[in-house]
Amino acid sequence: MSAESALEDAKRLTHLLYNVLAVEVAPESIADDEEGVLGGLYFKLLAHAASAIAIAERPTPVPGTKLSFTDVASVYTLARNAYEAALVLHFVFLVPESKVSAEQRKLRLLRWKLGGFLEGKEWKPLRREHQERKAEYAEEAERLRDQIKQLPAFQALPDRWKKGMGRVATKDKVLKGHSWKEEHWHELAAEMDIIQGHFKPTYSHLCAYAHSGAVSAGQLWNMNTMPDKENVRRALARTALQLLVVPLALTILAYAERFPEAKAALHKDAKDLAFVTERAGFRTVDFTKSDRATSD
What we know:
By secondary structure, the protein is mostly helical. The chain is built from 14 helices and two strands; from the N terminus they run ααββαααααααααααα. The protein has a two-stranded antiparallel ribbon. α1 packs antiparallel against α2 (32-57), α1 packs across α11 (229-240) and α12 packs across α14 (270-280).
């Protein structure tokens, strides 16, 4: 896929994602305690994708100077953030009941929310308003624990972890909020039917930029020595958008399957449906073996 094709694909998929998210769905389709939180995840995915596209399309100015350049590193970092938002969204909300029961999905969602409220539990705020906010978070965490305890899926878990159990959820681990999942990112990708030969090299490449890896930092510096460095930056940034194609396409299809109203909207245009379906198929391209599609 060329740099320009990657840019146009990402733009079209981001637009289609917005279109399906904008469809009004039946109120009973989403629980009251789900709407705001899940809306935030949808917006996070949409915002990261749109921002990556905007940065790839035009140079970023350096304040106070005449210098501007295409910010390759930010495109990669935003692409990684978008990918993770899509994985979490699928894991806690869009995974079909053919794979995970509604009750298990509810436990996942509550664990994810609990983990968020406990992230700053070691923080000792000095300002009064921050102390009040921390107390509110603690109250919300306790409310979530009470909800979790009522779920049969939680009650079926072992009480505590014992040697030899491997990576499994236990009651004490869940309630302490040590982690909102046992699964690694590549396991969340597998649940979306993305083969490991595609996901692992893609995610590793994205993380190298987000974590300031030596190779990615070296690539950015080496571009400065090239006579056509800005053209190289622009092409690399737009090519990076290709990595957004799979999570965007899969999220559109999963959202449409979850909500009949969104599915009807997507199916109105046969060309759009065919385009999204084809791009979702890129998840079966195994980068570790060849450039051809495979279902291994």
